[in-house]
Amino acid sequence: MALRLGDEAPNFQAETSEGKIDFHEYLGQSWGILFSHPKDYTPVCTTELGYVSKIKPEFEKRNVKVIALSVDPVDSHKGWISDINETQNTKVNYPIIADADKKVSNLYDMIHPNASETTTVRSVFVIGPDKKVKLTLTYPASTGRNFDELLRVVDSLQLTSQFSVATPANWKDGEDTIIVPSVSDEDAKKKFPKGFRTIKPYLRYTPQPNK
User: Fold this and answer.
1) In the 3-class helix/strand/coil scheme, how is 34-82 assigned residue by residue?
2) SS3 at position 181
3) Domain 163-206 is classified in which CATH homologous superfamily?
4) Hey, what CATH class is 7-145 in?
5) Residue 45 falls in the annotated catalytic set
């Protein structure tokens, strides 16, 4: 059964390119991003894993741990990592789960039989410190993911988990946010000392509260 927003991210133990892990222990009190790859030595995945290693400091600034998955064994991962480092001019600096038995892939519903019965789709799970699923994305195997968008999503998720705001279309960190409808104007005056502007009773903008 597919994981839904608000579900607990299932725990598992697995071998990775950096040794054996218990997933929940690996995350600790951090946010997490788990993202899957169809298989090793594939071109789109090579670019994705390389790019994530380059922007890992941005995830770390946000208290996010990243971990990848591919349905091949550890030895294969290690050879592939060498290729990624060479071709993407980087150094893969996070673990890649070895899921040859597809245990984790099935646990997280990463195999969509109508697309392929043997390989995972490009799944993404953003997981909060409470181990709950905060966001899911599913791409076909042929389309590389936008990891800058995942940074933007994390900024929104972390902000909206702390304040009674939502983020509008195409929002970026530092831009105005929207006060959620459940907050009255009276309460909004107390919660948002920077003030707010009302476009419609249900559409009220306020400067980003944590800036």
Assistant:
1) EEEECCCCCHHHHHHHHHHHHHHHHHHHCCEEEEEEECCCHHHHHHHHH
2) coil
3) Antioxidant, Horf6; Chain A, domain2 (3.30.1020.10)
4) alpha beta
5) yes
Distance CA 125, CA 193 (A): 34
Q: Where are the domains of the chain?
A: 7-145, 163-206
pLDDT tops 80 at residue 78: yes
Q: 6: pLDDT confidence band, cut at 50, 70 and 90?
A: very high
Q: Which of 45, 124, 126, 153 is catalytic?
A: 45
**Dist. CA 49–CA 56, nearest whole Å:** 10
- Mapped onto helix, strand or coil, the DSSP state of residue 179 is strand
- Taking the C-alpha atoms of residue 76 and residue 103, their distance in angstroms, rounded to an integer, is 18
- Amino acid present at 104: V
